[in-house]
Amino acid sequence: MIGKCKGAGVKVMVDTIWNHMAGVDNGVGTAGTPIMITLACTIGTISIIAAWLTNNDDIQNWGDNEQLWNCELSNLADLNSNSVEVQKKLAQFTNDLLSLGVDGLRLDAAKHIHPWDIGQVINQLSRKPDYITQEIIDTSGSMVGMYTGIGDIQEFRYPEALRDAFNWNGIAGLRGIENRGWLSSNSANVFITNHDQEHDGAVLSYKSGSNVYTLAHVFMLSYPYGTPTILSSYTFNDKNEGAPNGAYGTCYGAGGVNGWLCQHRWTPIAGMIGFYNQVGTAGLTNWAQGSNQQIAFGRGDAGFVAINNEDWAWTSTFQTSLSSGTYCDVASGKKEGNNCTGGRRAPNNDKKVLVQMFGWNWKSLAAECEQFLGPAGVGYVQVNPPQEHLSGDAWWVDYQAVSYQLQSKRGSRSDFAEMVGRCKNAGVRVSVVKDMIWNHMAGVDNGDGNAGTHFSHYNYPGLYSWNDFHHCGTNNDDIQNWDDRNQLWNCQLVNLADLNTSSVYVQDKLADFTNDVLGLGVDGLRLDAAKHMSPDDIRAIMGKLSRRPSYISQEIVDTGGSMVGMYTDIGDVQEFRYPEALKAAFTGGGIAGLRGIENRGWLASNSANVFVTNHDQERGNTALTYKSGSVYTLAHVFMLSYPYGTPTILSSYEFDNGNSGAPNGAYGTCSGAGGAGGWLCQHRWNAIAGMIGFYNQVGTAGLGNWVQGSNQQIAFGRGSSGFVAINNEDWQWTQTFQTSLPSGTYCDVVSGRKNGGECTGGKVTISNGSFTVTIPSRTAVAYHIGAKN
Questions:
Q1: pLDDT of residue 346
Q2: What is the pLDDT of residue 441?
Q3: Gap between the Cα atoms of 500 and 514, Å rounded
Q4: Is the pLDDT of residue 324 over 90?
């Protein structure tokens, strides 16, 4: 390993234990050596077999250096490192490592060895290591100065400061971190977390959610302070868990598989390693600040970085010292030849409103893309699963996969391919977000698929058999404990045959199926029941795809928020707390309380896929639905105007029975600004269609000009691009509003639209940013610069 790493240009540093031996009374080592603890705590020149001086010889007073150096740390047999014989043994062990080519040492628990003793051992080494760092947990700074002559010291105040800044205090306060009275930059070994802290949850870790963990690495690798260490580790539930996969580390693409995280491969971290190497010792320049969570700075004429830790976009013109030219963003990709592989998941100015065309067949959907969805500015349509499924009339049979033939109630393979092509040609740019079923097959004991495939519960001819499924051993193999991730990932969801997605064979089959639809032009995926698959398995399948979809959303019903952060590096996550919050606010809690919804500790805005309701919730009582009346429409106005998340609009059909399938033979029909033949066509409702245009027009403009009437009356602007007012009271609201819109006459896009030089609905004239309007009860008004006459 050492030879191969050095041959590849990477030096090897070993976590070296000089302080202690094992902390158990007896046992056997990995090489078969028996162990037994016999030594007692020693102080000064007292013999190593002196009488007990503290309870169990453990450290009792953490402010006493003598105890720190000479008593046991958590029962670990504390070596008498002052002994010449012990020093000789430690030097012999270390010289053995050095002779094999090791170039660096991390001295574990160095705080518990007297610095003089460490110096004595180092003096006996055959050569001085190229790099030494010492683990000295000393957040008060009273001891670290005693060790700086030996080598670098791990600066434990650094990860705490970054945790506080990225979570609460603001990253702008990190400017001048080198002047806090900590270790000098040339003595500090800095890090976001280490293996101990990751398991204790005291600082940022891969479980921190949103993007703060990644962004903290971007800061560490760009700001000139200390020598950085990046932890590359594995997922765990129990903090005592050892490495997965028999400790054989496995990565794929820009992430990990089989339980490994491979943070060193994450695109922003890998890119910033190159940034760090490139800028070298160049000084800090061109500091810029937006909010206290938005900073940018240069590194001389060698590099420039901008970090946005807010839940909204940051548009700014920066002055740098870089030479003129085109540069690739190394946080989102890399330079490959003369091209940049980087790019945002959904660039700022791209249309990215999703409409879930629930139950529509392929022929009718193709026509609706051409007639309405494309001209309305819809970015994506989300369609029902297209594979062969269980026969039947109920809506949910579509989600009970039988084979991967593209033959469903919605149409044939050729119908599907034609629909994809026609939607893309109609300007539904990244057209089809496909509801993809990777977690399971059908949930009945036996039956026939709609394309004629006969199957039994764990036998799908030519595709899967018994060994390709999880059999977790619970009653009926179903999930019994919904707090147990092992059951969530490895047991059945309401009898649906749970695929063993950790199996390479299953992963290959799922990747083949997905590559087939990608080959037909599909641009996005909604991963149904993603919560019930390990994120490692999802990453492994993604790594086998022919191309990365332009948009990915994952169904993770997690209102407690304990799991969503594990999936955000894969793609967006559906934020199920959002529809619940909107229902509570619009039906009584007060919509004024929705201000700051992005600060509730949910998913970060750029990871959240939000919605008023979906096809499951429409049949329950946890969210607003078309049966809720005007509040349903007003909730859509809010979702499409307030800057949080990527919105999905459900377009569906009427039903009395929650199992009812789509009407009219699944041929979707709309008329004017509504539906026909049992279809609701919410995407055509004046208010919703108008707000799609509003959403596209305001883009990433920030929130401003907030006004509140009652707690059910709010208004706000989106920079100089748009302004909306929502009246959820049972009486009208007359108000003079101050906006940032330029003067002119604007059409209200909630009640109508701009048609040539006329407004089909209401209109207002804005002068010097001000206008007065009366908003009827349970309605809204919205204006944007694209609807200005």
A1: 36
A2: 98
A3: 17
A4: no
User: CATH 3.20.20.80 occupies which residues in the chain?
Assistant: 2-18+82-298, 354-436+522-698
| Whole-number Å distance between alpha carbons of 279 and 301 | 8
Of 724, 719, 771, the residue nearest 744 (C-alpha): 771
pLDDT tens digits, residue range 289-319?
A: 999 999 999 999 999 999 999 878 888 889 9
Residue 60 CB contacts under 8 Å (≥ 6 apart), including other chains = 54, 67, 71
pLDDT higher for 431 or 770?
Answer: 770
- Of the candidates 300, 312, 306, the residue with the CA atom closest to the CA atom of residue 332: 306
The answer to whether 528 is a known catalytic residue is yes
Asked if residue 725 has pLDDT above 90, the reply is yes
For 703-787, CATH number out of 3.40.630.10, 2.60.410.10, 2.60.40.1180, 3.40.50.720 equals 2.60.40.1180
pTM of this structure: 0.64
Beta pairing class for 34-36 and 454-456:
unpaired
Beta bridge partners of 20: 78
pLDDT in tens, 443-479: 999 999 999 999 999 999 999 999 999 999 999 999 9
Q: Which residues contact 433 (CB under 8 A, 6 or more apart)?
A: 354, 380, 381, 382, 383, 523, 524, 525, 526, 551, 553
The catalytic position among 78, 528, 537, 572 is 528
Q: What is the pLDDT of residues 245-299, one digit of tens each?
A: 899 999 887 888 888 999 999 999 999 999 999 999 999 999 999 999 999 999 9
Nearest-angstrom CA–CA distance, 759 and 786: 12
Please state the rounded mean pLDDT for residues 568-580: 94
CATH topology of domain 2-18+82-298: TIM Barrel (3.20.20)
Taking only the tens place, the pLDDT of each residue in 63-73 is 999 999 999 99
Predicted pLDDT of residue 433: 65
- State percent of the chain over pLDDT 90: 84
Per CATH, the homologous superfamily of domain 354-436+522-698 is Glycosidases (3.20.20.80)
Distance from C-alpha of 125 to C-alpha of 151, rounded to nearest angstrom: 14
Handedness of CA 598, 603, 605, 608 (dihedral sign): negative
Locate CATH 2.60.40.1180 in the chain.
703-787
With 0-12 / 13-18 / 19 or more C-beta atoms within 10 angstroms meaning exposed / middle / buried, residue 250 is: middle
Give me the mean pLDDT over the 681-710 stretch: 96
Contacts of 584 (CB under 8 A, 6+ apart): none
Tell me the pLDDT band of 559, cut-offs 50, 70 and 90.
Answer: confident
CA 21 to CA 77: how far, in whole Å? 5
Alpha helices (H) in 8-114, listed in sequence order: 65-70, 84-99
| Mean predicted confidence (pLDDT) in 568-597 | 96
The residue written with tokens 């993809």 in the block is 436
> What is the sign, positive or negative, of the torsion defined by CA atoms of 633, 638, 640, 646?
negative
Give the list of residues 6+ apart from residue 318 with CB closer than 8 angstroms, or none. Answer: 286, 288, 296, 304, 306
Give backbone dihedrals phi and psi of 378, rounded to 5 degrees, phi first. Answer: -70, 135
- From the list 78, 310, 311, 555, the catalytic residue is 555
Longest dimension (CA), the chain: 97
The beta strands (E) that lie in 265-317 are given as 284-289, 294-299, 303-308
Is the pLDDT at 216 greater than 60? The verdict is yes
3-state secondary structure at position 157: helix
Contact 498, 479 (CB under 8 A): no
Measured from the Cβ of residue 281, the count of other Cβ atoms closer than 10 Å reads 9
CB distance 725 to 735 below 8 Å = yes
* 311 is annotated as an active-site residue: no
DSSP per-residue codes, 479-536: ---TT-HHHHHHSBBTTB-BB-TTSHHHHHHHHHHHHHHHHTT--EEEEETGGGS-HH
Mean residue pLDDT across the chain: 93
Which residues face 572 on adjacent strands? 553
